[in-house]
Write a structure and sequence with these properties.
The complex is a heterodimer of chains A (677) and B (298). The longest helix of chain A is centred in the first third of the chain and has 36 residues, at 38-73. Chain A is 26% helix and 26% strand. Chain A has an eight-stranded mixed sheet, sandwiched between helices. In chain A, strands 7-4-8-9-32 form a five-stranded parallel sheet, sandwiched between helices. Chain A has a five-stranded mixed sheet with strand order 27-31-30-28-29, with no helix packed on it. In chain A, α2 (38-73) packs antiparallel against α14 and α10 (374-385) packs parallel to α11. Chain A folds into four domains: 2-75 and 646-662, no CATH class; 82-216 and 605-632, Rossmann fold (3-Layer(aba) Sandwich); 308-527, Rossmann fold; 538-595, no CATH class. Chain A has 677 residues and is of the alpha/beta class. Chain B has two domains: 4-24 and 82-293, von Willebrand factor, type A domain (Rossmann fold), CATH 3.40.50; 32-80, no CATH class. Chain B has eleven helices and ten strands. In chain B, strands 5-4-3-6-7-10 form a six-stranded mixed sheet, with helices on both faces. In chain B, β4 (128-135) and β5 (138-144) form a beta hairpin. In chain B, α4 (107-124) packs antiparallel against α5. The chains are: A alpha/beta (677), B alpha/beta (298). At the A-B interface, β2 and α2 of A face α9, β8, β9, α10 and β10 of B.
């Protein structure tokens, strides 16, 4: 025998009442005067034995009535499975973030745990249960153990932002049951519409799926998306539920302590925060946030593009303007608009270059440099090691061995010799074009689209490098004859890039091509470490992936856990919510925010009818869990109620109460003789 | 105590008043409503008898002679007065059913109502009615006619108080001398004092030309024993006590009381005594007319 509410069994103490009444009742006597005791004495003598038996039976009936009444309130049942076979059961917990919604101060997950606990208490001895969740990470989900072990596992069960969805979880449950020869699936869920809609695509599950609904109100507000446009940050809010508040307050806090507040009635607000650093983590909070607290706050990594200070060192100046080596580069970088605002360019002649000129520069472009004094070269190298970018574009002045080889130390790789294919007109053959397939990160997008027009550039002069590339040196692009076009080498935390041809029209018409500016911009950003991977404003845990980086990057999660990503690493998928930092050599180069699926914030519920319809489409039988049947527990309430009724009838008959209830006519002593004389 | 309004039951009086009460005619040649065995001069035809000398020739039926050529005389019922005595049992047991300070609702109350109604009906048809009350003591009002007799009967009933034992067998034999015979004896009692065998003595009164008609009165509660819980029953006449659970003995008690009532009835019928059993005035209105019409008492 098993009881749903065993605490009510304390009511059995009431069994002492009829006993007390039985014992004390006989002491309390009232006096009734009668005409004669003759008949009472005779009747008493006749009924004495019967009377005592009847009193005992009456006491028994009263005791049983109370016993059955208390048992009925306590929810009687027996834990017997159908056909005497112990069913295998898979308890499938929806651990998606939406199960964190608060229902009367308690998380849906906790409510589900309590229900499953009760459910397991009602299972027959020897039952075996498998506990699985909708989490992507299926580690630790041991199949088919005793309910006691499952109870222990439930304690540690928590929400998982990495949610694989109900469909795959139900399919996994079905697979487990198939391996065990059948059973049933118990799904503990908040009936979130978004989750269950996917069930339409569920392959046929041959086992009954019983649903334990732990959902509550569908009202929720959340920060749906954040987008940065220049200095303006737009926050879009999501809402679900009919009675969700229209007016909400959105607060944005910056690292410097600035807190901006805005009211929203249309679900969208704009902020223009003061961003003091290139990368700032902002906290955005919506209030009131509704049932799900986890999505009321969203962090956002805002960026401020820094102005790159470029020192353009002209190694081949000319009084004749069109013959100047840096003419086209200067023109491009001062062409106005975005590029001009991004780069602060200063031009010096190589001959007048001093170490002081290098201070404060983010990048130095040596255009067709010739012989260089050793202190200058050393200063350049030191600055590169400290993180400055150095670009060397080749030309006829380049002399690797000149000046005691000072330039050689700066070059990414030793040069062998220069190749001059034709005359002054580079557009006349023979010339070399650029091999589009040779572009590697971060220039890989030059292979296609408009940027691919760079392939039309014709070059008849370039430098060849030594065939063997030393470690840390890589070729970023090549000519059609596979001669290197762009070569890179890391030096300290800085980079050096060699362009093996000229940036004027002496050896190539590259400077005349429309793709030249993107190439220059990309090179400058890359060499100064300002070229960040394109990442989403935020990434969805378990869904979005961070593409493999072009270099070694560390991803620091909010908990401080660092993951090293290499170009050959698999894509990185965040597993924690919050702001992640991207670091290169301990320098914060960027970041992103990981959050759980915004669809989880929409707490709209699916009705039982809709669920059944979806089930019919996919051939799955969904039904609500019946606390007595679903648990393998047979409810004895009807039987106990019947026994209670019988005991009460017996009590009524034995006590004579039935005669009074029935209103039976007085007993007729005349026996028909009175009128029939 | 009972009051006049308590024992004068208009409905019952009216009910019995409409019944021609039969009884035993007296020897006195007073014209009454009761047919005598004597052939008299009333207008009520009785039978034809063959003429014998000495018959009043005024009664010779000439029409019969014309048809049969034989002489027959017509005989008529002789209607004379009845003498009746209403005997009310006022033993202690008759107070059952009443409240401690009032007899209202008791068997004595019912007996008094029946006695008044009977007296009223009898007096109305010109009979002589008397009243005897047997209890702790004995009261007797000899039979007389007239409206004043009803008042006397009522006063006597109101003044009586149930108690003691009726002792019918001891007191009845001396009645004849006191009220004269013949007379009809209406005995209103619960007969609880008497064992059934003792009732047979009542039939012996007929030898003294006292013709009893028995009216047994019992209270509903005496039959149904509708009490709950262990109860101490105390005898109204002897103060003996017995504690029992009425629910437990109800069935057996009912069998006992039924056996008793049936015994009384059977004894009455076997002895040729008209008998009625009543529990309330409604039953009295239904049962008594049948009893009063019966002539078995003779």
């Amino acid at each position: 025998m098993d009881f749903l509410r065993p605490a009510l069994l304390w009511g059995l103490a009431a069994l002492s009442l009829p006993i007390l009444i039985h014992l004390l009742g006989s002491r309390r006597k009232r006096v009734v005067y009668v005409g004669t005791l003759r008949f009472i004495e005779r009747a008493s003598a006749r009924a004495a034995a019967k009377w005592r038996l009847r009193r005992l039976l009456l006491l028994l009936a009263r005791l049983l009535s109370l016993l059955f009444l208390v048992a009925l309130f306590a929810g009687p049942g027996v834990v017997v499975d159908s056909a005497g076979v112990l069913l295998k059961r898979v308890v499938l917990f929806d651990t998606s973030p939406s199960m964190g919604q608060l229902i009367e101060g308690q998380r849906g997950l906790e409510i589900g745990k309590a229900l499953v606990g009760d459910y397991m208490n009602g299972l027959p001895e020897g039952s075996r249960i498998a506990l699985i969740t909708t989490a992507k990470d299926t580690a630790g989900q041991e199949p088919f153990v005793s309910p006691e072990i499952i109870s222990g596992s439930l304690v540690d069960l928590d929400l998982s932002p990495e949610d694989a969805g109900l469909v795959s979880a139900i399919e996994r449950a079905s697979a487990l049951l198939t391996a065990e020869g059948g059973g049933e699936v118990l799904v503990v869920t908040d009936m979130q519409r978004n989750s269950w809609r996917a069930v339409e695509g569920l392959r046929e599950a041959p086992y009954p799926v019983k649903v334990v609904d732990v959902g509550g109100g569908a009202t929720n507000r959340w920060v749906a998306s954040v987008a940065q446009q220049g200095g303006r940050i737009r926050v879009t809010l999501g809402a679900s539920g009919a009675d969700v508040a229209d007016e909400v307050t959105v607060t944005m806090s910056t690292p410097s302590g600035e807190a901006l507040t805005s009211f929203s009635e249309r679900g969208e607000v704009n902020f223009t925060p003061t961003l003091e650093t290139p990368l700032s983590t902002l906290d955005i909070v919506v209030d009131p946030g509704g049932a799900l607290a986890e999505d009321d706050t969203l962090q956002f990594v805002a960026t401020t593009d820094p102005v790159i200070k470029l020192l353009l060192v002209n190694g081949d100046p000319s009084e004749f303007r069109l013959m100047d080596e840096t003419l086209f580069l200067r023109q491009l970088l001062s062409s106005g608009g975005r590029v001009q605002s991004r780069f602060a360019t200063r031009t010096v002649r190589l001959s007048s270059l001093t170490a002081d000129d290098l201070q404060g520069a983010d990048a130095v472009w040596l255009a067709n440099p010739g012989e260089m004094e050793t202190p200058i070269a050393s200063a350049l190298l030191k600055r590169v090691e400290e993180g400055m970018g150095l670009i060397i574009s080749a030309g006829e002045n380049l002399d690797p061995e000149g000046g005691a080889g000072t330039l050689t130390k700066l070059l990414p790789t030793p040069l062998r010799d220069s190749v001059i294919l034709g005359g002054e007109d580079v557009t006349r053959a023979p010339y070399e074009e650029i091999d589009l397939q040779s572009f590697t990160a971060p220039f890989e997008d030059f292979s296609t689209g408009e940027l691919a027009l760079i392939a039309e550039a014709k070059t008849n002069g370039y430098w060849l490098t030594d065939s063997a590339l030393s470690e840390g040196v890589r070729v970023l692009a090549r000519f059609s004859n596979q001669a290197p076009l762009l070569v890179e080498r890391r030096e300290g935390i800085g980079r050096v890039i060699l362009l093996t041809t000229t940036i004027d029209r002496d050896w190539s018409d590259l400077c005349l091509r429309p793709s030249f500016l993107p190439l220059v911009e990309r090179t400058l950003l890359y060499v100064t470490g300002n070229l960040r991977n394109e990442t989403l404003p935020y990434m969805v845990i378990g869904i979005d992936e961070l593409k493999p980086p072009i270099e070694v990057v560390e991803v620091e999660s909010p908990s401080g856990l660092r993951t090293t990503l290499r170009p050959d690493s698999p894509p990185f998928t965040p597993t924690e919510t919050g702001a992640h930092r991207l670091l290169i050599s301990e320098r914060w180069i960027g970041g992103f925010v990981a959050r759980f699926d915004p669809g989880e914030s929409n707490l709209s519920r699916i009705s039982g009818e809709e669920l059944q319809m979806l089930g019919e489409k996919s051939g799955v039988t969904f039904s609500a869990l019946d606390s007595s049947q679903g648990s393998g527990r047979r409810d004895l309430s009807p039987l106990i109620a019947l026994l209670l009724a019988l005991a009460m009838v017996a009590e009524a008959l034995l006590s004579g109460r039935w005669s009074r209830i029935k209103g039976s006519p007085p007993m007729d002593v005349k026996g028909g003789f009175s009128r029939d004389r | 105590m009972l009051e006049r309004s308590h024992i004068y039951d208009d409905a019952l009086v009216a009910r019995l008043g409409g019944v021609p009460l039969t009884g035993v005619p007296t020897n006195f040649p007073q014209r009454g409503v009761h047919t005598s065995q004597r052939r008299g001069a009333s207008l009520e035809f009785s039978e034809h008898t063959e003429y014998v000398p000495g018959d009043d020739l005024r009664n010779l039926d000439w029409k019969v002679y014309g048809k049969s050529d034989r002489y027959f005389v017509r005989r008529f019922e002789d209607e004379r007065l009845q003498r009746a005595l209403i005997l009310v049992d006022a033993s202690g047991s008759m107070s059952y059913g009443g409240s401690p300070d009032s007899l209202e609702g008791s068997k004595y109350h019912l007996a008094a109502r029946v006695a008044v109604a009977l007296s009223s009906a009898l007096l109305r048809q010109g009979d002589a009615v008397g009243l005897a009350i047997f209890g702790e003591g004995e009261s007797l009002l000899t039979p007389r006619g007239g409206a004043a007799q009803l008042e006397a009967i009522i006063e006597l009933l109101l003044g009586a108080r149930p108690g003691g034992n009726a002792r019918f067998s001891e007191r009845l034999p001396s009645l004849r001398e006191r009220i004269g015979a013949p007379a009809t004896l209406y005995v209103l009692s619960d007969f609880l004092d008497e064992e059934v065998e003792g009732l047979r003595e009542l039939s012996l009164l007929r030898a003294r030309r006292l013709y009893p008609k028995l009216i047994q009165l019992l209270h509903h509660d005496e039959i149904n024993l509708p009490f709950e819980g262990t109860t101490r029953f105390r005898d109204l006449e002897s103060s003996a006590e017995l504690a029992v659970d009425p629910e437990a003995i109800r069935r057996a008690y009912f069998e006992e009381i039924k056996e008793f009532v049936e015994g009384v009835a059977a004894t009455a019928y076997s002895s040729g005594l008209p008998y009625a059993f009543i529990r309330d005035s409604v039953e009295a209105g239904e049962e008594l007319p049948l009893l009063l019409l019966s002539r078995e008492g003779r």
